Amino acid sequence: xxxxxxxxxxxxxxxxxxxxxxxxxxxxxxxxxxxxxxxxxxxxxxxxxxxxxxxxxxxxxxxxxxxxxxxxxxxxxxxxxxxxxxxxxxxxxxxxxxxxxxxxxxxxxxxxxxxxxxxxxxxxxxxxxxxxxxxxxxxxxxxxxxxxxxxxxxxxxxxxxxxxxxxxxxxxxxxxxxxxxxxxxxxxxxxxxxxxxxxxxxxxxxxxxxxxxxxxxxxxxxxxxxxxxxxxxxxxxxxxxxxxxxxxxxxxxxxxxxxxxxxxxxxxxxxxxxxxxxxxxxxxxxxxxxxxxxxxxxxxxxxxxxxxxxxxxxxxxxxxxxxx
Amino acid sequence: xxxxxxxxxxxxxxxxxxxxxxxxxxxxxxxxxxxxxxxxxxxxxxxxxxxxxxxxxxxxxxxxxxxxxxxxxxxxxxxxxxxxxxxxxxxxxxxxxxxxxxxxxxxxxxxxxxxxxxxxxxxxxxxxxxxxxxxxxxxxxxxxxxxxxxxxxxxxxxxxxxxxxxxxxxxxxxxxxxxxxxxxxxxxxxxxxxxxxxxxxxxxxxxxxxxxxxxxxxxxxxxxxxxxxxxxxxxxxxxxxxxxxxxxxxxxxxxxxxxxxxxxxxxxxxxxxxxxxxxxxxxxxxxxxxxxxxxxxxxxxxxxxxxxxxxxxxxxxxxxxxxx
Lengths: 324, 324
Prior knowledge:
Two copies of one chain form a homodimer. By secondary structure, the first copy, chain A, is an alpha+beta fold.
């Protein structure tokens, strides 16, 4: 029996235009749990898909100057259901992952992933169907990435755009304009939330919480010394747990939460010695206990520079919603 | 170009006795960095190798009662060199990983991994050669694992031994007695260190440091709610960074450290709400600045129960030793 079933050989995914990769995945301890390991794997799948389809090794790319250039995460969106969500995955689960790339020019790229249990009905990834988020057996993931490089050796600030030599993207499909992530992440960057105002049926859940998170040099950095993109998810979860405690809730309910929607815009990196100042606001649905929206803004404390903006839709009562 | 080169098809590794798996690995962001991601991957490779060769899916195993049983880490040993060590790996690196299993009965198993850069000379994994640790281009990894199950639902304490149905091990080679990890981990369990007394040329580096680490429910648990085995490495690194700061050292030198030898014995798990009390002692070589031994004992604070014992050999001056 082979349990290593990862396989990127299946191009096309039914569309046959060289924009899609399919994988069969066995979930391992190193890619699930109450942590950001699954998100980290999603990121690796984005880089693998680009490496597979765009004539560029995303894991070892250089720009025209010969400097390393990284396919940096700029906007990350995960959409799930109580039946199929990130914290619900455990080792031994078998998944089918389809990944499709869309052309956004030489400096960026969009990847759509659809993650389903093995054997679930999965057609080709079609934007119109993807953005309906209608299949409760699917985790929908949008990754918008930009090629960046360091502007100063050793510093994680002021990263600048920089495409690798030979990055091929013209052959990829265009995303219909109505789904473009640009409007969404521009809104988040300008308004420090993904929310278009609050729906009328929402009331504040708690006073705004302000937390300081010192970057943990023993744990938060990736293989090139940058704040690892999945660490931002860990830091947001860290802040969410503090909100939980402020509300007098216990750890078990935290572990049982269902994150239905998670949007994250990466506006900056930070050095290993920085302290991040995190602002958390939360609203619940009036009368709908457990249906909550949380907005998180992460700044570099000393400079005030915004590092990330994130908005989550959470079912805090978790398992109670299993049949939703 | 395919960058997914993981491949467990190559049984034998030159020995042809069904005890060995070989992999070609492209290092991705999700498996390297200043964190415990690479260690997590080593653990996954142990489980994959057992799943491949022992007729048991380690990712989804159950005992005779039908309860989940986990191939829990009990003793983990990493031996490296300034040229090839865990914190020195980065994405884009290509590795060859050989993994060989040894029979330790129905309740436990030993896995030896040899991790080398692609193209390095690698013969079959032979215990006599392995335990000489002589190749500076190799990271040597020993994993001793035991099958365990929860004795009470929802609790991470009092985990008990429990083999899965159908676990096949008789066909695996026996490890020569002189290399058995049992003497080593028994010593660590009884003496709370892997050291056989200190060599005469060592002097204390700092007074004993005592730290409290509250388990972080947003980050430390695996997909079944247990403290993830790789998290113990993160907690030890967290403590090591506090030692670094106590000594007035900066973050850059911490990131540049070389861990030549890391032994870790897992004596217990802990619940998500626990606080761990960590004791750190360190010695340097007299006159040999930067050559340091660190001993870490982790207890559950409230009960005093010992959870882990670890001893590290570290070059704190890192890069300065690159030609050693």
